[in-house]
Amino acid sequence: MKVTRSRICKECNGKGGKEDSIAECKACSGTGRVARLVRMGFMTTQTITQCEECRGRGKIITDKCKKCNARMVVEEEKVLELDIMKGTPEGHRFVFKGDADEYPGIEPGDVIIEVQLKKHPLFKRKGADLYMERKINLYEALAGFKFQFTHLDGRQVVISTPPGKIVGNGEMMTVEELGMPFFGRNYKYGNLFIEFTVEFPKSLTKNQGKAVREALHTKESDKRCDPSVKEVHVPKMFEGTEKELLAKLRKRSRDMDDDDDDEPNPRGQRIECNSQ
Question: What integer is the mean pLDDT of 219-242?
Answer without folding.
Answer: 66
